[in-house]
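User: quick one - fold this with pyridoxal-5'-phosphate bound?
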Amino acid sequence: MATAVTGKMVSDRIGRIELSATLAVVNEAAQLRAKGADLVDFGAGEPHFTTPRHIKDAAIAAIENNFTKYTAVAGIKELRQAIANRHREDLQSDYSATECIASTGGKLALFNAIQTLVDHGDEVIIPVPYWVSFKDIVQYAGGKCVYVDTDEANGFQLDPAMVQRAMTSRTRAIILNSPNNPSGAVTSPEVAREIVELAHRRGIYVISDECYVYLNYAGNPFSLGSITKAKEHLVIIGSLSKTYAMTGWRMGYALATEPIVNAFQKLQSQSTSSSNSITQKAALAAVTGPQDCVQQMKTDYTKLRDRVLQLLAEIPGITCNKPDGAFYVYPNVSKFFGRGGVRSAADIAKRLLHEAHVVTVPGEGFGTREHIRISYAVTMSDLERGLGRMKTFFAKL
Ligand SMILES: Cc1ncc(COP(=O)(O)O)c(C=O)c1O
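Assistant: Sure. Structure tokens for the protein plus pyridoxal-5'-phosphate:
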């Protein structure tokens, strides 16, 4: 039987986006590993810690108690309330249970937010460097990304005047991400307030990706949700993935006014429905249980950050800002361009992978051309082993 001839295989929407750059690296590394290579992996953006015991126990109890059915789309009431409470207590926000939706990861919460708020042709301001998925999710919605550079010499800090200059009558939203993936930069509360107040006055949404909010080494965790007078234009995206070492469980959330959360719910009801019921019980234990695990991990990340900076400083030619948050460093490797046939950060990451067996992510996926991202959420011995290999690699380049 003849196959029907169709003009195209996939939708225009899918044609507008790419496979996540970080996932692409993970795939390439997996292929090498399958061939027996002993890799040091600085690529994956996830904690090396295991999920705390009390959280795992709550999930086991959920299974034993047959809490294994569909739940309400936005999540069980207790969880929505508990997330709102924890946010209020730790981050001085003012959200109720009905202003919270639990989603299958912060990524879905963000996807819901962008698809709900951004129309075809709308402009979305994105500071550079940015987390890989912002660009593609905006493009999937038909929006136009408007990039605003940050100043590396100033620790990748965002300048509110530059954000203001990027605003037009078509600007629909600004995506902020502090602590930042990939630079680790933390936006000061003053700068954040200035941008939020500006956006609020002009009726522009600020979507604040705060997945790393507790991993702030310079000061107290700060959420834009504390700027309650701008609540109408704020969407806070949070995640349990990094805070409680729960990446594989898939639990994130959005906080916003009730009509906006209801719109997210409408979209989610047509995709995943609720998040996983067992994960919801685990998440409830995470946000209501003891929080010392969060502090303990933060203390360990601080030591790892200091060590990676020390070791990078021993590699001639590499410069690196001291990041105040998340678990990434974003060294500038441009001094090596032109040496040994290397022309870009992508070339360096590829050669580091194949020749030194160290996994990093090239800056191109984050919107800059001169950097590679190193995740230091690894054991101290892996960190030292990987940096040792990098030192040897760069010395020979
Ligand atoms: C900035 C940022 N936002 C959101 C996410 C999504 O996290 P998850 O979907 O695991 O909650 C990540 C994960 O790496 C991230 O780095």
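One thing worth noting: The CA atoms of residues 35 and 41 lie 15 Å apart.
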